[in-house]
Amino acid sequence: MGDEKDSQDDSVFTQLSEAVATNPDDPSARFNLGLFLWDRTGEESKQKAAEHFVIAAKLNPQDANAFRYLGHYYSKVSIDTQRALKCYQRALALSPQDSESGESLCDLLDKEGKESLEVAVCREASGKSPRAFWAFRRLGFLQVHQKKWPEAVQSLQQAIRGYPTSADLWEALGLAYQRLSMFTAAIKSYGRAIELEESRVFSLVESGYVFLMLGSHRKVILTHM
């Protein structure tokens, strides 16, 4: 079985290499060969892949995909954080909806403790595209962390459009509503989080607390049964 797969891989590699040899200035041929090499194990393959991504990016500077994979190469293989940041930033500038580049860029900034830059990146992407749901999600969580409740509500509501089954988002939205004393909305959001994941202890406890504040003792008992 392994031999058969190796044979198929060799055949695909030959085809992709021939495509590059025939059209060396075709960015998509370069990118496809790079992608094939990237998926192979070993640092040498990743290095060769990166060489093709560099050429693809030069031939077509509008291709976000090449910059995303270069970002991956510099962040995970050759460990050059500054170059990785630049590549991810370029990918996002071209495609604000690119959640892979966005999350990777923000993870790098988070590791370096650059929260304000992380917020700026998310604001820029979400400002460019209402479908940059990853940016709204990340921004919403950061705003909850910073206790910026009205802004958090807006960001989390938009994020939920892209990730409607994320219990984390519903729970964070419940907390933001609760802090703004919007208790009915908080209970609904916590309730949705619990529907999605029954083991949501925080949502269970906080929704019980909200019911208690509102004087709904019977509902408190039902919630905790």
UniProtKB/TrEMBL annotation:
<keyword id="KW-0677">Repeat</keyword>
<dbReference type="Pfam" id="PF13414">
    <property type="entry name" value="TPR_11"/>
</dbReference>
<protein>
    <submittedName>
        <fullName>Uncharacterized protein</fullName>
    </submittedName>
</protein>
<dbReference type="InterPro" id="IPR039226">
    <property type="entry name" value="Ski3/TTC37"/>
</dbReference>
<dbReference type="InterPro" id="IPR019734">
    <property type="entry name" value="TPR_rpt"/>
</dbReference>
<dbReference type="GO" id="GO:0006401">
    <property type="term" value="P:RNA catabolic process"/>
</dbReference>
<feature type="region of interest" description="Disordered">
    <location>
        <begin position="1"/>
        <end position="25"/>
    </location>
</feature>
<dbReference type="GO" id="GO:0055087">
    <property type="term" value="C:Ski complex"/>
</dbReference>
<dbReference type="InterPro" id="IPR011990">
    <property type="entry name" value="TPR-like_helical_dom_sf"/>
</dbReference>
<feature type="repeat" description="TPR">
    <location>
        <begin position="167"/>
        <end position="200"/>
    </location>
</feature>
<keyword id="KW-0802">TPR repeat</keyword>
